[in-house]
């Protein structure tokens, strides 16, 4: 379950300058540790902890090297990693140089199963002042579809 809480902010720019606005902010990020990943692989395969650790380390080195070479890396059912270089738009053709390129960034493109997993996550907003504060569960594949807010803003906890 991903939990959100209500936060407020006073706007400093634009036509709403000085107005206080409210938004949902994620409370915390739960993480699965590398040790947990390692343990799960050990318990679901015939590999040892040392085997798994060595495989993860080798995968990491290989992915880093491939990305440094500008290659995309397909990680099977998880998705793929690639380096992208955002560009600046310039007025003249002769201005397209290294200076018109931004810093390279790594992008992850998830496969369908991973995207579906993201759509099935339970979400909730703790807001006792909400008009409809009763708990709601998002429909599968449509987080917050019944809340009237993007991202499931009406799900109660």
UniProtKB/TrEMBL annotation:
InterPro entries linked to this entry: HU-HIG, HU_DNA-bd_put, IHF-like_DNA-bd_dom_sf
Sorted UniProt keywords: DNA-binding
Region annotated Disordered, chain positions: 121-157
One protein family per Pfam: HU-HIG
One Gene Ontology molecular-function label: DNA binding
Keyword DNA-binding in record: yes
Domain HU stretches: 2-122
Residues that span the membrane, as ranges: none
Lineage: superkingdom: Bacteria
Protein name: Putative DNA-binding protein
């Amino acid at each position: 379950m991903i939990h959100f809480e209500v936060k407020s902010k006073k706007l400093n720019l634009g036509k709403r300058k000085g107005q206080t606005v409210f938004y949902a902010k994620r409370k915390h990020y739960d993480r699965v540790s590398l040790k947990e990943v390692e343990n799960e692989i050990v318990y679901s395969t015939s590999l040892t902890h040392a085997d798994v650790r060595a495989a993860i380390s080798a995968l990491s080195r290989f992915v880093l090297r491939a990305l440094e070479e500008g290659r995309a890396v397909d990680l099977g059912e998880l998705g793929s990693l690639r380096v992208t270089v955002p560009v600046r738009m310039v007025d003249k053709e002769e201005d397209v140089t290294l200076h018109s390129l931004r810093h390279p960034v790594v992008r992850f493109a998830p496969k369908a199963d991973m995207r579906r997993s993201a759509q099935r996550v339970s979400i909730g907003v703790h807001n006792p002042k909400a008009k409809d504060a009763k708990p709601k569960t998002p429909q599968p594949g449509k987080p917050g579809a019944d809340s009237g807010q993007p991202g499931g803003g009406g799900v109660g906890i």
